[in-house]
TrEMBL record:
Gene3D superfamilies noted in UniProt: 1.10.8.60, Winged helix-like DNA-binding domain superfamily/Winged helix DNA-binding domain (1.10.10.10)
Name the record gives this protein: AAA ATPase
Keywords per UniProt: DNA replication
Gene Ontology annotations of biological process type: DNA replication initiation; mitotic DNA replication checkpoint signaling
InterPro entries, per database record: Cdc6_C, Cdc6_ORC1-like_ATPase_lid, ORC1/CDC6, WH-like_DNA-bd_sf, WH_DNA-bd_sf
UniProt region (Disordered), positions on chain: 143-173
Domain Cdc6/ORC1-like ATPase lid span(s) in chain numbering: 69-106
GO terms for cellular component: nucleus
Family (UniProt): Belongs to the CDC6/cdc18 family.
Cdc6 C-terminal domain mapped to chain residues: 204-294
Species per Swiss-Prot/TrEMBL record: Lunasporangiospora selenospora
Length: 316
């Protein structure tokens, strides 16, 4: 649309003026993130300038304050990575949002686990409700006095006093911004890997398990220096079936299904297939680097038997 209207505007001497938006620098991104976080407390002024000259002033004003929700090293890492990659402020704010959501999910999961553990704990009868005579009766093999037992059942809050001071301490106090768990550098690293990860890595992560095994076998052929005749369709299939049987975790697919898997990998641009008279003689070449394949699959525990030998070879 721009290419269509610009010549018409130029012919009528109404050519618009070009306005360039320079990418944000590290100090600017850092200052804006801090300003957004401090605005949650409603303590910063509304007429803060967003210019580069005011970035240092903003840093001096917020240096002595405690930043809510995010650690300062995490903010610094986010600002530097985004400034070096694109300088897009929207990307930096989106990464901050993702990391805060990560921390929120982790806190909720931890709270649910603690609640389940408290529910599974037995609720013993408080010692304050057991009289000396009843205690002697219990030691002798008897039961608690009926009056004591009835009083305990009628007032369950009394029975909970024995554990309220330990398990329920602080449960009624609301969590403030300063007390809330904060985003760490590790959270930012995970969000950055998702935002600026290699397209090949993201594409490999979306594959199914059997397609990932095929890629790992091709990496193995490259590492051992047998990427020539040993990377033919038939030999890769034989290696695939033997590896699946040895792992006792995967059921190998048939030869026809295996050819379909390789064809799908070719469509996605992860492998290339050579020409041959027979299908089993077609050579399979890996398109991404072997490091990218291992980086995309190393976090999947079910493929540990396939990935660990390759990772050890990389470290050596």
């Amino acid at each position: 649309m721009t290419d269509r209207f610009l010549p018409r505007l130029k012919a009528r001497s109404c050519e618009p003026q070009l306005l360039n938006f320079n990418p944000y620098q590290v100090a600017e991104i850092r200052a804006i993130i801090l300003d957004r976080l401090f605005s949650l407390e409603d303590t910063l002024s509304d007429n803060r300038s967003a210019g580069q000259n005011d970035a240092k002033k903003s840093d001096d004003q917020t240096k002595a304050r405690v930043v809510p929700l995010m650690q300062k090293p995490a903010i610094e890492l986010c600002a530097r990575k985004v400034a070096a990659a694109t300088g897009d402020l929207r990307k930096a704010l989106d990464i901050c949002r993702q990391t805060i959501e990560m921390v929120e999910m982790e806190a909720k999961k931890k709270e649910r686990l603690e609640r389940l553990q408290q529910q599974r704990r037995p609720n013993p009868t408080p010692l304050a409700e057991i009289r000396l005579g009843d205690l002697e009766n219990r030691i002798a093999g008897g039961s608690l006095d009926r009056n004591t037992h009835a009083r305990t059942l009628s007032n369950p809050s009394v029975a909970a006093t024995g554990t309220a001071g330990q398990d329920g301490a602080g449960t009624g106090v609301g969590m403030t911004l300063q007390d809330a768990p904060k985003v760490t550098v590790e959270h930012v690293k995970r969000a950055l890997a998702s935002a600026f990860g290699s397209p090949m890595v993201l594409k490999i992560r979306s594959l199914n398990v059997h397609q990932k095994i095929v890629l790992l076998l091709l990496v193995d052929r490259i590492r051992v220096g047998k990427a020539g005749t040993d990377s033919q369709m038939g030999k890769i299939f034989d290696l695939y079936t033997s590896k699946c049987r040895a792992s006792n975790k995967f059921g190998a697919v048939s030869r026809g299904e295996f050819q379909d898997l390789v064809s799908m990998l070719e469509v996605t641009g992860l492998v290339t297939l050579g020409k041959a008279k027979e299908e089993r003689l077609r050579k399979i070449d890996l398109v991404p680097r072997d490091i990218e394949v291992l980086e995309a699959i190393k976090e999947q525990d079910i493929l540990g038997a396939f990935v660990q030998p390759q990772l050890s070879a990389v470290s050596e």
